[in-house]
Design a protein that fits this description.
MFS; single chain; 19 helices; mainly alpha; Growth Hormone, Chain: A; globular; 3 domains; two-stranded antiparallel sheet; membrane; disordered N terminus
Length: 461
């Protein structure tokens, strides 16, 4: 894109800059489409979306999990702070409850979606500047938390709009095939990139030059953010129809609270998020700080979990169709409880349990994600599903982050916890995994109560 400026003298001592009309016309054409898209337009856009997904997922993976924990600990973060930082995306997800208030009033959402996603992803890459700022370690960590939180707020805010956008250019009859192929390509690309970056960090860690390793990683993130913005901008957006019923800030909280049956669903979501987020953010902390595993091995474990998710999600979907979504979520909760109990027994002498824990976790998350969304959708009234789903997003974010805070304070207060039972060593983080498994058993009780209202869900769907 070439920006051409013409200069006109308007008076002896002043100049006026006039932006070329062609630039404005180009921006309008790219970001503010008013025409119906042809089949060819949507097909090309879907192909671009595959590569856009590769860059987006790569950025997400390289700026979260063990990579994020490693960077935070490089800046001097404790295990407690590292766990809290890992859970920031969950807290930022609260903003998804309010994004419909803005997006439902817009015919064209592409410009703000592309802009916010670019700024958010660029901020993630720019975190590499923090170690070069000559301030105290505490202030550096404060900057890291602030920048990471703002970046995730921007990305979470645009998430509903971007997901809807890609669905709009994908006909329903090919969605299963398309998203399955897209996910496999994205997963394959991200696997290669994360394995390479894991090797880079391991190599520079052995040399004692971790800053150089992180600099390479985050510079790659910056270039990926630029590439992502270019590709995202080239995906065409259909013109959106404005919603007839306006979503208000007040109704997001007022309406669901009056629905007693839906509040049982909310209780289920709250228990799940407290139990899961109590321990999940600390699995990466545990692998980095306690088990002292290399980034390459941690990456392999993460990829193993993702691969399991991709393979199992279709199986879980068919199982839900045969049984019910409540049956599926009950099974997934049981698997996740088993997963946390396995984490409890993992130490330097039982690393053979690590792949089993990641396989179970990947399978459970795949089933939980689709079952939670469908249960929330099924139990919400037809005319207010956006409001109910928004309310659930806020609840999930709040209770999930509270769970992580509880886990973080336990890690700090029980930092010296260490004892042996029959020759087996138990430390503070292992107790968090055990506690999380116990908390999740509460979900099974709520599911049993909710089972009585399945007919209500059928009526609402």
């Amino acid at each position: 894109m070439v920006l051409r400026l013409s200069m006109m003298a308007v008076e002896p001592n002043g100049w006026k800059l006039e932006v070329n009309v062609e630039l404005l016309a180009h921006i309008k054409k790219v970001y503010f489409n008013k025409d119906n898209l042809s089949d060819a337009d949507m097909q090309i856009s879907r192909k671009i979306s595959v590569f856009e997904g590769c860059t987006a997922r790569s950025i997400l993976t390289l700026t979260s999990g063990a990579f994020l924990v490693g960077f935070a600990k490089f800046l001097g973060a404790s295990n407690q702070i590292s766990g809290i930082i890992s859970a920031i995306p969950v807290l930022a997800g609260i903003v998804m409850a309010f994004s419909p208030i803005v997006f439902e009033k817009m015919e064209n959402r592409k410009f703000i979606t592309c802009l916010f996603c670019f700024i958010g992803r660029l901020l993630l890459g720019m975190m590499i500047i923090i170690p070069f700022i000559k301030v105290s370690r505490v202030f550096q960590l404060s900057i890291l938390i602030s920048v990471f939180f703002i970046a995730n707020l921007l990305l979470a805010f645009t998430s509903p709009a971007s997901q809807t956008w890609i669905l709009d250019i994908t006909p329903e009859k090919i969605r299963g095939v398309y998203f399955g192929r897209r996910e496999s390509i994205v997963l394959g690309t991200v696997t290669i990139i994360t394995l390479v970056m894991g090797q880079v960090l391991d190599r520079y860690e052995k040399r004692g030059d971790m800053l150089i390793g992180f600099a390479i990683l985050y510079i790659f993130v910056i270039f990926s953010a630029i590439a992502n913005f270019i590709m995202f901008s080239n995906i065409k957006e259909p013109c959106n129809k404005l919603a007839k019923n306006k979503v208000s800030f007040k109704n997001i909280f007022k309406i669901p609270l009056k629905n007693n049956v839906y509040m049982i669903v909310v209780l289920l979501m709250a228990l799940w998020n407290i139990g899961f987020q109590l321990a999940a953010p600390f699995t990466s902390v545990y692998m980095v700080s306690h088990l002292k595993l290399g980034y390459s091995l941690i990456t392999i474990m993460t990829v193993l979990a993702s691969f399991t998710s991709v393979l199992s999600v279709r199986l879980w979907g068919r199982l839900a169709d045969k049984k019910s979504w409540l049956y599926l979520i009950k099974l997934m909760v049981v698997i996740q409880i088993l997963c946390f109990f396995i984490w409890f027994f993992i130490n330097r002498n039982t690393l053979f349990l690590l792949p089993i824990a990641h396989i179970l976790s990947g399978a459970a998350i795949a089933g939980i994600n689709i079952s939670i969304n469908n249960i929330q959708y099924s139990f919400s009234p037809k005319e207010s599903k956006t409001i109910y789903m928004g309310f659930s997003s806020a609840v999930n974010g709040i209770f999930g982050f509270c769970g992580t805070l509880a886990g973080a304070y336990f890690v700090k207060d029980a930092d010296s916890l260490y004892f042996k039972v029959a020759g087996f060593t138990i430390e503070n983080m292992q107790m968090i995994f055990l506690t999380a498994g116990v908390v999740l058993t509460g979900c099974l009780i709520v599911i049993r109560i909710l089972k009585k209202y399945e007919d209500y869900a059928t009526i609402q769907a």
